[in-house]
Amino acid sequence: MDKGKIILRKFKTIGISVLLFFVGATVAVIGSPTPDGYTELLNEKNALTESIEEQGSELSNKEKEIADLLVLKDDLKLKEKEALAKKEEALAKAEEEKKAQEAEEKRKQEEAQKLQASQNKTPTNVTTNSGGNSNAGTSNKKPAAPSKPQDTTQSGGNTAVEPIGKMVWKTATGKKYHSINNCGKTNSSKATQVTLDAAKSAGLTPCSKCF
After folding, report:
1. C-alpha angle with apex 178: 175 to 197, nearest 5 degrees?
2. In the chain, N or C terminus with fewer CB closer than 10 Å?
3. Distance CA 196, CA 169 (A)
4. Which tens digit of pLDDT belongs to each residue from 15-74?
5. Helix (H) or strand (E) run with residue 30 in it
């Protein structure tokens, strides 16, 4: 804008100088102007002055347009700079998010691998411990002593203790129960089988021959 003012001033100075030169040359050529000649010169001067002012006005308008363009240029540069800064910020943020996501995925993979390794290792330990416990139990366990057969008779010659639910044979008229259905004179066709408890409840006693 300062350059435009300087140009305008130079343009006005040159115009005035040309005008003075033109007036001086006219006076020198024709001598003292007549009233009509003076009026003509004055009109020419006014026309030239008006032309200079119009050109100065146009120059001022051009100067204003140039100033507006410079402001617009500065605004565009500022907006471009802001857009570039936002773009760089967005790229940096995206890069950080990408790195964070990759780190999270890596962490999850490592946890999954550790969990898988732990699951694969646990059954082996259980089997080993079970085997060790089994072996320890076997080695610590003493051989069971063979069970002694239960005495079927009580001290003093008492009759044997019969297991509950044992089946015996009896006759319709006999007072004893038998372990077989054809003991002595027992008629096997008439013998019936009952439980030992039932025979004892009926007052029957064991046969001395078959018991």
Report:
1. 75
2. N
3. 9
4. 666 666 665 655 554 555 566 766 887 888 788 888 878 887 888 888 889 999 999 999
5. helix 2-30
Q: Which of 181, 180, 170 is nearest to 205 (CA)?
A: 170
Give the other-Cβ count within 10 Å of 41's Cβ: 16
E strand residue ranges, the chain: 167-170, 176-178, 192-195, 205-206
Name, of 9-18, 47-56, 196-205, the range with top average pLDDT.
196-205
Model pTM greater than 0.90? no
Mean pLDDT of the chain: 74
Residue with tokens 């044997």: 160
Phi, psi of 194 (to 5 degrees): -135, 170
